[in-house]
């Protein structure tokens, strides 16, 4: 081969190699969000549906552990509040008398790997050593977490002191901290542990932790740093240039889930300690790989790809298919809204999870089904039939809204939202046994509630009076558009469910669903309620009748309502409103307007450095999982044109932004179908 052809071949190989590296880099960028700036820091929770680890900018530290659906009183006469776990996920490292901190490091980075649900912090400490900390909330062991650590001395041998810490929240009572080494034949099991009672002593809290070493276990010493803070310490001489690895693993258990949380937390860390570090991480990664069978791939817009995947990552992180628990607005990232469950789940988070993961959707519905009897009692207590679900729900199923908030007493559309979610599950699953045993019992009680809640007018129509609708700025509304629309839809679904089971539906269900009142301005724009006169609204209300309720279906009616209500929305309102408008404009074929609203729904709410969503552009309360649900609905049910119908998932007209070359939606429905839309 002459020189000319050799050069051509080498050039071709270089092109192929560079293209492959570039493609790999772009693919990884869609899964990884990395930062080297902690000047304005909002961490992104690492969660597994049971516990959430809220990271810190400090290497090896965790700000808090959030527990799912473990409640005590917020105050002596207050409502319930979700509890923090006793925090096991902290390390303190001392080299040459200096403690490792972000401010005395260089080359600080944090990397969120969404594919494997892992957060890795790296830094260089005064040229002494390079550090790497990878944190997991283990998916396969949902009450546990782990920090996997690597240290490489750079310029000489170093003596390193490492303390694995347990820090108990100050408000907990009867705190007992200790360390013991259990022995079984040749197995030594050193365990650090704290047990305590929750603030009003509803629950016993227990956390255990231990080190896991790749090689010989060094001498461990117990050190008490205060009544609520103790640690397990080892000292190690490290050789220059040689990587040293270990892990710090812990478990947070409570009497909500275990009769003996102390012993159970010990067993969990012992399981990780005795040769299972790699296996539990591998299992964690396998389970996340299964979750990501449901995914959204955007070509041509890496920022949108990261934002959308981060939203889906959070919904997966905050839920499980085996928990029978729901998702509060802030998920497992904070104690916002006391960790209670609202309509946010059924109307905003549930639809994306339903199409991607029917196991999680089933679990979310079980949360409501298991509290049906409490909802029936609430209806009876307020003089109604059927079931009346609480606006804010906790572990009990009773109303958990603070008594000063009128939403808890009057925001009744939550009951219809739940009924709609149950019928949508049947639409996808076609599980008639489930419908008979679970779905229809809920739909029946929901429909009976709306029969008793509605009042007949002189002209034969029906009204639902004195409610707070989706627009929470307007109290004591009569014939709120969304409340009436949701009730109408739930009543219709109850009729369909009865017929599906060859049962005779209550004749009142159909009669009232057809006769509920809606009010209009002279030009045909639907009024938000009977006396609405153009006031600013908190969030979308009337527009929800076009999507997701599909009551308003004519394009000219949809456009008229969109044009009127978009400028009425308060800038401090939550993110979901513009997501709904984006769906509607996409379905109308207006890609540019839909994309503008898609971005407006969440871009102002992103908080550095990872893009965690706050509830509004003016709040600082991330991560707002409700906003994630709205964003995902814009993509799935707007741009991709998917619809949930009585025949299952169908695809209508698609509408891609010009910024996207293609959109791929993977793992949709029970048959895991893939939809590809190209520009």
UniProtKB/TrEMBL annotation:
Residues 44-247 form the Glycoside hydrolase family 65 N-terminal domain. InterPro entries: 6-hairpin_glycosidase_sf, 6hp_glycosidase-like_sf, Gal_mutarotase_sf_dom, GH65_N, Glyco_hydro_65_M, Glyco_hydro_65_N, TPR_rpt. Keywords: Hydrolase, Signal, TPR repeat. It comes from the Bacteria. SUPFAM superfamilies: Galactose mutarotase-like, Six-hairpin glycosidases. PROSITE patterns: TPR. This is Glycosyl hydrolase family 65. It comes from Marinifilum breve. The lineage of its organism: Bacteria, Pseudomonadati, Bacteroidota, Bacteroidia, Marinilabiliales.
């Amino acid at each position: 081969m002459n020189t000319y052809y050799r050069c051509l071949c080498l050039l071709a190989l270089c092109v192929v190699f560079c293209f492959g590296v570039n493609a790999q880099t772009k693919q990884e960028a869609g899964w990884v969000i990395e930062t080297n700036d902690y000047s304005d820091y909002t961490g992104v929770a690492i969660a597994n549906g049971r516990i959430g680890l809220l990271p810190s900018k400090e290497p090896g530290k965790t700000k808090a552990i959030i527990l799912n659906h473990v409640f005590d009183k917020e105050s002596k006469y207050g409502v319930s509040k979700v509890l923090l776990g006793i925090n096991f996920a902290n390390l303190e490292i001392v080299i040459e008398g200096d403690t490792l901190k972000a401010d005395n490091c260089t080359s600080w980075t944090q990397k969120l790997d969404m594919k494997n649900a892992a957060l890795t912090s790296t830094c260089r400490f005064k040229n002494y050593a390079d550090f790497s900390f990878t944190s997991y909330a283990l998916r396969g062991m949902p009450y546990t977490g782990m920090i996997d650590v690597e240290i490489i001395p750079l310029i000489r041998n170093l003596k390193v002191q490492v303390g694995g810490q347990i820090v108990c929240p100050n408000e907990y009572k009867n705190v007992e901290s200790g360390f013991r080494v259990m022995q079984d034949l040749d197995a030594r099991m050193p365990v650090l542990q704290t047990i305590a009672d929750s603030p009003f002593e509803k629950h016993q809290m227990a956390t255990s932790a231990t080190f896991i070493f790749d090689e010989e276990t060094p001498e461990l010493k117990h050190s008490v740093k205060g009544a609520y803070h103790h640690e397990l310490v080892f000292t190690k001489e490290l050789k220059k240039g040689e990587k040293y690895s270990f892990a710090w693993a812990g478990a947070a258990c409570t009497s909500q889930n275990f009769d003996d949380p102390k012993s159970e937390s010990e067993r969990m860390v012992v399981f990780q300690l005795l040769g299972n570090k790699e296996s539990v991480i591998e299992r964690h990664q396998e389970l996340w790989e299964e979750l990501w069978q449901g995914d959204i791939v955007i070509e041509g817009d890496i920022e949108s790809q990261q934002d959308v995947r981060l939203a889906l990552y959070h919904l997966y992180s905050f839920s499980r298919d085996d928990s029978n628990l729901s998702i509060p607005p802030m998920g497992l990232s904070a104690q916002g809204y006391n960790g209670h469950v609202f309509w946010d789940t059924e109307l905003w988070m549930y639809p994306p999870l339903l199409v991607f993961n029917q196991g999680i959707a089933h679990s979310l519905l079980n949360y409501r089904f298991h509290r049906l009897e409490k909802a029936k009692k609430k209806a009876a207590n307020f003089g109604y039939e059927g079931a009346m679900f609480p606006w804010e729900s906790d572990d009990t199923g009773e109303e958990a809204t603070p008594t000063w908030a009128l939403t808890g007493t009057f925001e009744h559309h939550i009951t219809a939202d739940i009924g709609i979610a149950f019928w949508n599950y049947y639409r996808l699953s076609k599980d008639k046994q489930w419908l008979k045993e679970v779905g229809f019992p809920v739909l029946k009680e929901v429909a009976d509630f709306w029969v008793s809640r509605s009042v007949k007018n002189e002209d034969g129509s029906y009204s639902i009076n004195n409610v707070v609708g989706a627009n929470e700025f307007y109290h004591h509304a009569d014939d709120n558009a969304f409340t009436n629309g949701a009730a109408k839809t739930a009543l219709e679904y109850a009729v369909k469910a009865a017929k599906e089971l060859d049962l005779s539906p209550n004749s009142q269900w159909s009669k009232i669903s057809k006769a509920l009142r809606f009010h209009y301005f002279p030009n045909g724009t639907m009024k938000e309620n009977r006396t609405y006169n153009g006031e600013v609204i908190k969030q979308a209300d009337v527009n929800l009748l076009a999507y997701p309720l599909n009551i308003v279906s004519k394009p000219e009616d949809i456009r008229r309502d969109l044009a009127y209500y978009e400028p009425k929305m308060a800038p401090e309102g939550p993110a979901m409103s513009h997501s709904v408008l984006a769906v509607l404009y996409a379905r109308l074929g207006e890609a540019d307007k839909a994309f503008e609203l898609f971005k407006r729904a969440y871009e102002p709410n992103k908080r550095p450095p990872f893009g965690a969503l706050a509830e509004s552009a003016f709040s600082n309360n991330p991560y707002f999982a409700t906003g994630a649900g709205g964003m995902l609905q814009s993509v799935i049910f707007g741009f991709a044109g998917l619809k949930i119908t009585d025949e299952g998932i169908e695809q209508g007209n698609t509408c891609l932004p010009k910024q996207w070359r293609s959109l791929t939606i993977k793992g949709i429905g029970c048959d895991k179908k893939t939809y590809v839309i190209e520009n």
